[in-house]
């Protein structure tokens, strides 16, 4: 009787750990007590807003903006705060009392409240950001309530990177009213700027970004764009100088050839210059 070796099934090779361990989608940079804390987009988008927030009718030394800085708003509850993803203020010095970098923005010690606030929607923050969350008794008011009723911020902007939806509200008669877009932008004539969506590359990331424009729709350049534009202008000027030099040399050569031809015909070019 023939005896065959016993068949032992072979198990599949184990999966590498990066295929079984949690991914960044399972481990976001959030805090259960304060949902919606920054991811990388929450770093780049406020940075672009910061770099391009340049109100044309204000002294740059009296323009301040910040991202993820605690905003204290209530004298009766001095520990209550909100943390806007980005906000801009006009009429205040860049440093606190002109002397120190701000640790927070304490409204009762500052000469002006924020002029514009931008919130970037995150999963779990939509209801509060858009004013759909009801305030609980004895709890701090929602962002919407603080921005609208307490600080009376003239412009409140909400942007979602997931849907690329831009929603904007302007304080009218003490209440926020939806703003209409003009040529795809939100006009803020008080500071000579407009805010809109721009498809382009910022810090080598190509996507739809929220950024500042002039009222006429021209981009407010950020420093790397200004440097690139300056380099391009220098290259154009250098090329124009080379072209002008080449044209001058060509004209000089043609003049010399013409003078020689006149001499061959028995005409002195110098005599013609005297007649002219």
How would you describe the overall organization of this protein?
The chain has 276 residues and is α+β, with helices and mostly antiparallel strands. It has two domains: 17-220, tt1808, chain A (Alpha-Beta Complex); 229-275. Helix content is 27%, strand content 22%. It has five helices and twelve strands. It has helices at residues 40-52, 126-129, 143-150, 223-264, 269-275; strands at residues 63-66, 71-72, 81-82, 86-90, 105-106, 116-120, 155-159, 166-172, 175-178, 185-188, 193-202, 205-214. Strands 1-4-6-7-8-9 form a six-stranded mixed beta sheet. Strand 2 (71-72) and strand 3 (81-82) form a beta hairpin. The protein is elongated, with a radius of gyration of 32 Å. The N and C termini lie far apart (128 Å).
Primary descriptors:
3-stranded mixed sheet, 2 domains, 6-stranded mixed sheet, 12 strands, tt1808, chain A, 276 residues, alpha+beta
In a few lines, what is going on in this structure?
27% of the residues lie in helices and 22% in strands. With 276 residues, the chain is an alpha+beta fold. The strands form three sheets. It has a six-stranded mixed β-sheet. The chain has a three-stranded mixed β-sheet with strand order 3-2-5, with no helix packed on it. A three-stranded antiparallel β-sheet has the order 10-11-12.
């Amino acid at each position: 009787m023939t005896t065959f070796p016993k068949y032992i099934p072979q198990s599949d090779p184990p999966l590498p750990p990066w295929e079984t361990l949690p991914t960044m989608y399972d481990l976001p940079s959030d805090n259960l007590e304060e949902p919606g804390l920054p991811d990388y987009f929450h770093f780049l988008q406020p940075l672009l807003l910061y770099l391009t927030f340049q109100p044309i009718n204000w002294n740059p030394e009296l323009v301040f903006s910040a991202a993820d800085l605690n905003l204290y708003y209530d004298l009766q509850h001095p520990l209550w705060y909100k943390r806007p993803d980005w906000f801009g203020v006009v009429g205040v010095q860049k440093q606190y009392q002109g002397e120190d970098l701000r640790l927070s923005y304490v409204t009762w010690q500052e000469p002006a409240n924020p002029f514009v606030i931008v919130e970037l929607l995150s999963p779990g923050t939509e209801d509060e950001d858009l004013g759909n969350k009801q305030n609980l008794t004895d709890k701090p008011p929602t962002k919407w309530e603080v921005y609208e009723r307490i600080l009376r911020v003239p412009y409140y902007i909400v942007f979602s990177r997931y849907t690329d939806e831009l929603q904007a509200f302007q304080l009218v008669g003490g209440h926020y009213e939806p703003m209409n877009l003009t040529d795809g932008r939100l006009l803020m004539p008080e500071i000579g700027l407009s805010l809109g969506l721009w498809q382009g590359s910022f810090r080598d990331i190509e996507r739809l970004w929220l950024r500042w424009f002039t009222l006429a729709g021209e981009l407010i350049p950020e420093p790397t764009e200004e440097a690139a534009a300056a380099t391009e202008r220098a290259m154009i000027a250098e090329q124009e100088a080379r072209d002008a030099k080449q044209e001058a040399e060509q004209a000089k050569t043609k003049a010399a050839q013409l003078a020689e031809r006149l001499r061959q015909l028995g005409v002195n070019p110098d005599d013609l210059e005297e007649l002219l």
